[in-house]
Design a protein that fits this description.
The complex is a heterodimer. Chain A is of the alpha/beta class. Chain A contains 12 helices and 8 strands. Chain A has one domain: Rossmann fold (3-Layer(aba) Sandwich). In chain A, helix 3 links the parallel strand 1 and strand 2. Chain A starts with a helix and ends with a helix. Chain B is built from 13 helices and 17 strands. In chain B, helix 13 links the parallel strand 16 and strand 17. The radius of gyration of chain B is 21 Å and the shape is globular. Classes of the chains: A alpha/beta, B alpha/beta.
């Protein structure tokens, strides 16, 4: 499934300008590229309460040129399941003759944490829908609170850096593995630093019957205490340091979609982020070493899974 | 030719529980989608409906969700996609849906939900009282109450027309007592499926996400400059729905041959003392009033079948000429001056020049029966008040150990 840039520029992007997301917003790129990848389909969407939701549909305006439904924070999976179920019934009854694709969208808080049950239910029941989690590592909409996706040691407004504790004390949740364990036909991890890889994954997921799930790394420079022009670069560095590998799980087979030729030092990814500044101060060395250990552990685990899928 | 004038088709009288009656009404409505989660004492509805799905008796997409929150979420999605959708729940399930109740109403999605009244934890208890639906009374759902399996059947069918009325467009819950109604086998006169289909008609959604010509964004962020008007239009729709409910009740009454009234009364032509109560406990009150009337006591009973919108005018009309009224309720409002219906009725009557003396009882929490002897005591107290005696304590609890 090749993405052709010349063809792409001719498409109508069904996520328009005029939305109120921040300058340099990673999730905004995610939304735009998702709609570009899905441009050839009739699409109906559900959205969790999140940055993209709150910024894109402010009454009486909307940035979405497809049908879009925001219901609540924790139920994008259930809502899209309901939309898809009714679509199936209407089709069976001869009241619907169009083909549709169903996409649910949520941030990491609405997906890893409060919406996990609803997402799991959607996957287990086999709804023909794609759930996209854009992961910016914290509850950004409410002001940078730690989530299940926040990496260990990251500063957030509910995991401060102080004398007693330095940032979040727990590891992040491996949501992609949890979704892969649902044995759904398509699961993938992507990053907005690699737009072609991400859009290919969206198209693959939409072409796959049954439930599919993509987590896309979508840096939030405001929450990460970095620069507005660093968003895409951080999305690339996360991949190039092996922190955020690009891979997919197709019918249970784990495969890399991109492997960096040379692994960059983790510090290159963490240093531009103020949320990790304590790792670079005197006394931060053990934290840095532990962070590196976790990255290595998860990378090795992934490589073992990829090898055993061959 | 109206539906009522058409020849009656294959009607039958069957033995059904309240749950069975709800499930069979749902089967005959044959909605596009049912998303539901099992909870005692509602389980028989989902089980029986799932059996209809398995046997191909319905063309419904049945979504066996992983929680009540997801049940109503999926219903919101299905309704927004232009489908006729239903769910059913009880007690903790309704409590878990609480957030979604407000969203379903605020999004103006006419979801239909049989709701078996069961108390709320803690302590955990599976038996009937009205704590669950009373805790949801401000969610802007239409709340209808049924006293027996026949009413459950009739009301479930009528609810579809009420919720989907273009001037209403609100979700509807059909409330009935856990076990006393949900599990009690009774005679139910059913309509033919085609009659039900004709009565409910084709669903014409005002909101349809699957209309490719007119994509729609639902669930916008609405800031203070528009929020109040959004809420107010919903509130006005609920307030105005009482007239449409009456019309649809009347139409169904003609079709079924069972006259329907949004406020049922017994003995109210000349009653001097009266009990106001919802659903099953009004039956015992009525039986007691019948006994007392044989002794020459002018006792009556008023049983609203609609609680939201509160049919104040109809209840007040039924109570005309009554000297003393007891509102008997299967739900407490802890810390409040009175339980929910009492508070509503007192509010409605406060500005009237001439109004009866009012007392309030809370009874039967957690499924404890309310006996005829207890009602006799209530009526005796009302007689004393009617005769000019002191009212005493307004709020009392019936049948609880001190």
């Amino acid at each position: 499934m090749a993405i052709n840039l010349k063809e792409l520029v001719k498409k109508d992007i069904k996520f328009t300008s005029g939305q109120r997301l921040c300058t340099g917003c990673g999730p905004a790129l995610m939304a735009k590229w998702t709609m570009l990848a899905a441009a050839d389909y009739n699409v109906a969407m559900s959205s969790a309460t999140c940055c993209v939701e709150i910024s894109s549909v402010v009454f009486p305006m909307s940035s979405w040129k497809v049908s879009w439904y925001h219901n609540a924070f924790e139920n994008a999976g259930a809502v899209i399941g309901g939309i898809e179920a009714t679509y199936k019934a209407l089709k069976r009854k001869g009241k619907m003759d169009k083909e549709f694709k169903f996409i649910a969208m949520g941030g990491d808080g609405g997906t890893y944490d409060i919406g996990l049950q609803s997402l799991s239910g959607m996957a287990e029941r086999g709804h023909n829908a794609l759930y996209i989690c854009y992961d910016n590592n914290a509850y950004m909409n409410t002001g940078i609170q730690r989530s299940g996706a926040t990496p260990k040691y990251a500063w957030t407004t509910t995991s401060y850096v102080g004398d007693a504790y330095q940032g979040k004390q727990q590891r992040r949740k491996d949501l992609v593995s949890i979704m892969a364990a649902h044995d759904i036909p398509y699961v993938a991890q992507a990053s907005i630093g690699y737009w072609r890889d991400y859009m290919t994954k969206v198209q693959k997921a939409l072409a796959t019957p049954g439930p599919s799930f993509i987590t896309v790394y979508a840096p939030c420079w405001r929450g990460w205490r970095s620069e507005a022009n660093a968003t895409v670069e951080l999305g690339r560095l996360a991949v190039q340091t092996n922190y955020w590998p690009l891979f997919e799980v197709v019918d249970g087979k784990w495969q890399m979609t991109y492997t960096p030729r040379e692994t960059k030092p983790l510090a290159e990814f963490l240093k531009p982020q103020g949320r990790f500044s304590h790792l670079f101060k005197p006394g931060g060395e053990p934290l840095m070493a532990d962070f590196q250990n976790e990255v290595d552990f998860k990378w090795d685990q992934l490589q073992r899974r990829v090898k055993s899928s061959l | 030719m109206t539906i009522a004038e058409k020849p009656v088709r294959q009607r039958k009288v069957v033995g059904l529980t309240g749950d069975g009656a709800a499930a069979d009404a749902m089967m005959q409505i044959d909605p596009d989608q049912v998303a539901a989660y099992p909870i005692t004492p509602q389980t028989e509805i989902v089980e029986r409906f799932a059996e209809y799905v398995a046997n191909g008796d319905v063309n419904t997409e049945f979504v066996a969700v992983e929680s009540e929150h997801s049940a109503l979420s999926a219903c919101c999605g299905g309704s927004a996609a232009g489908g006729r959708v239903m769910t059913c729940t009880s007690s903790q399930g309704l409590a878990l849906m609480h957030e979604e109740l407000y969203i379903a109403a605020g999004n103006r999605l006419p979801i239909i939900m049989p709701m078996v009244n069961r108390t709320l934890s803690a302590p955990i208890n599976i038996h009937g009282d009205h704590s669950d639906s009373m805790a949801s009374r401000d969610a802007a759902w239409i709340q209808l109450f049924c006293a027996d399996a026949q009413e459950v059947y009739d009301t479930t069918i009528m609810a579809v027309r009420i919720g989907e009325h273009p001037e209403v467009m609100l979700p509807v819950m059909i409330c009935f007592d856990g076990f006393n109604v949900s599990h009690d086998m009774e005679r139910v006169a059913m309509l033919a499926k085609e009659e039900v289909q004709e009565f409910v008609g084709e669903f014409k959604p005002l909101i349809n996400m699957l209309d490719t010509e007119n994509p729609i964004s639902i669930g916008a962020l609405v800031l203070p400059q528009f929020f109040f008007e959004h809420k107010l239009s919903m509130i006005k729709a609920l307030e105005g729905s009482v007239n449409y409910i009456s019309e649809i009740f009347a139409e169904f009454g003609k079709l079924s041959g069972r006259p329907q009234s949004i406020v049922e009364s017994y003995g109210m032509e000349d009653a001097e003392v009266a009990v106001v109560a919802l659903s099953g406990i009004a039956g015992t009150a009525q039986w007691t009033a019948m006994q007392l009337r044989e002794k020459g006591i002018k006792a009556g009973v008023v049983r609203p079948r609609v609680y939201r919108p509160f049919p104040a005018a109809e209840i007040i009309a039924a109570l005309k000429g009554v000297k003393a009224v007891a509102v008997v309720e299967k739900a407490a409002a802890p810390g409040a001056a009175g339980a929910p219906i009492f508070s509503d009725l007192c509010t409605a009557m406060f500005s009237m020049d001439k109004r009866p003396k009012m007392v309030n009882y809370v009874t039967g929490l957690g499924g404890r029966d309310t006996s005829s002897a207890q009602y006799t005591a209530v009526f005796e107290r009302l007689q004393a008040i009617a005769a000019g005696g002191p009212i005493g304590q307004t709020l009392s609890y019936i049948g609880a150990r001190e």
